[in-house]
Write a structure and sequence with these properties.
It is found in: Cell inner membrane. With 132 residues, this protein is α+β, with helices and mostly antiparallel strands. It contains 2 helices and 4 strands, in the order ααββββ. The protein has a 4-stranded antiparallel β-sheet with strand order 1-2-3-4, covered by helices on one side. The longest helix has 52 residues, at 19-70. It is rod-shaped, with a radius of gyration of 33 Å.
């Protein structure tokens, strides 16, 4: 084969990736990692909120048990009681109302973080009886 023939001979493609292909692959990986990071953040926030609501429900159940064990029928109205659970500083707001039977009181316990009465974490309702 002469030199003239080598200039015009078709070149065989060489192995490897072009710069554009590498940049596109890196962009796809970056988008996937950003989505995974965002999903992890949302999961952590949901876990935190679920833990707070679970602790608030425990606080409401404890308050209801205290009221039932006291065997006292409180007058209708509201009463705030501190009810911390774990590292959460919460308040249990107990609302008492008359029921159809005067020997019972309807009670609703609402739990919220101290200083944030508009943010209800849990609410529990039940009846108190004056049975001895």
């Amino acid at each position: 084969m002469r030199c003239d023939d080598m200039r015009h001979a078709p070149r065989r493609p060489q192995g490897g990736f072009t710069l554009i292909e590498v940049l596109v692959a890196l962009a796809i990986i970056a988008v996937a990692l950003a989505a995974a990071l965002r999903a992890t953040g949302v999961l952590a926030q949901n876990n935190h909120a679920l833990r707070d609501k679970t602790l608030a429900l425990v606080a409401a159940e404890n308050r209801m048990a205290e009221l039932r064990l006291s065997q006292v029928l409180p007058d209708p109205g509201k009463q705030d009681t501190p009810c911390p659970q774990g590292r959460l500083d919460m308040v249990c707001e107990s609302t008492y109302t008359y029921s159809l039977n005067r020997a019972f009181r309807q009670v609703s316990v609402r739990v919220y973080p101290r200083g944030q009465p508009g943010m209800t974490l849990a609410e529990l309702s039940g009846l108190l009886a004056n049975v001895r």
